[in-house]
Design brief:
The chain is α+β, with helices and mostly antiparallel strands. Helix content is about 15%, strand content about 45%. The longest helix is centred in the first third of the chain and has 13 residues. Its cofactor is Mg(2+). Pfam families: NUDIX (PF00293).
């Protein structure tokens, strides 16, 4: 039986618009593509898009927002590559436009396929993970949270529902799957909120030894129109110990992860 090698990478790209056109550049092989590249181990995707646009396009840019998160799988005999891609809106802040830069009409630019995310192998005992998480609310504005199980980094803290996506799984589909598995809720995604990055070079988990752990999280707003009592339906070894609804008044007394606290704070400030 033929063995298939599976590889996952995270990429960050800049979408720069001007008068209905989108900035594109040609790579070393002369192929036209959206400027950007791979997110390095431990690197925040916003920093990655600034760095890669300087490297691939010779431009200094400012990131103005997260436009989209998309996933694709490249398949070849004995090989499969899963690419998670974050598309950021950017504006040019400096630099000279080199000769390999081209402005394409939006329709033409959107038809250009994104290249496979190039990048070397990760060092031993290092993990880069892409996940989708939701700020989940019900009609009463209660917030759904999940508690991290013993044996996992952050054990006992309450986090946003969600988790790592499976191979070939888009982030929205992964989030709705995790919502059902972690809390037995069915929701609908209403908004893309943003992206966060977490890096722990000595994370201790169920493996029993330190791992250089880097997680990139895409955050969505999720509405549960018909909430039910939360129930963890994942099997043995789940990273989720419990799930519960919390009123806004209860949240200040809940022990939250840093990522959850930031997303919830920003939401209620809006």
């Amino acid at each position: 039986m033929e063995t298939t090698t599976q590889r996952r990478r995270i990429g960050a790209y800049g979408v720069c618009r001007d008068d209905g056109r989108i900035l594109m550049c040609r790579n070393a092989q002369g192929v036209l593509q959206l400027p950007g590249g791979a997110v390095a181990q431990g690197e925040h995707p916003v920093d990655a898009v600034v760095r890669t646009l300087a490297e691939t396009a010779g431009l200094t840019v400012e990131v103005t927002g997260l436009r989209d998160a998309v996933t694709d799988v490249v398949r070849a005999p004995g090989y499969q590559a899963h690419n998670d891609r974050l598309l950021f809106d950017v504006r040019i802040a400096g630099g000279n436009l080199p000769g390999h830069i081209e402005w394409l009409a939006a329709e033409a630019a959107e038809a250009v396929p994104l290249q496979e995310v190039a990048g070397g192998t990760f060092p031993p005992r290092s993990v880069q993970r892409f996940g989708a998480y939701g700020l989940v609310t019900d009609p009463e504005e209660r917030v759904l949270l999940t508690q991290i199980a013993l044996g996992y980094p952050g054990a006992g803290e309450w986090h946003l529902p969600g988790g790592g996506t499976d191979f070939g799984e888009p982030p929205k589909a992964g989030l709705l799957r995790e919502l059902a598995e972690e809390a037995n809720q069915h929701g609908r995604i209403t908004e893309l909120l943003g992206v966060s990055s977490g890096h722990n070079p000595k994370a201790l988990g169920p493996e029993g030894y330190p791992i250089d752990w880097h997680v990139v999280r895409v955050h969505y707003r999720v509405a549960v129109d018909e909430p039910v009592p939360p129930l963890v339906t994942e099997g043995a070894g789940s990273s989720t110990a419990a799930a519960a609804w919390f009123t806004p008044e209860e949240l200040p007394n809940v022990r939250l992860t840093r990522a959850a606290a930031t997303v919830i704070r920003d939401y209620f400030r809006r």
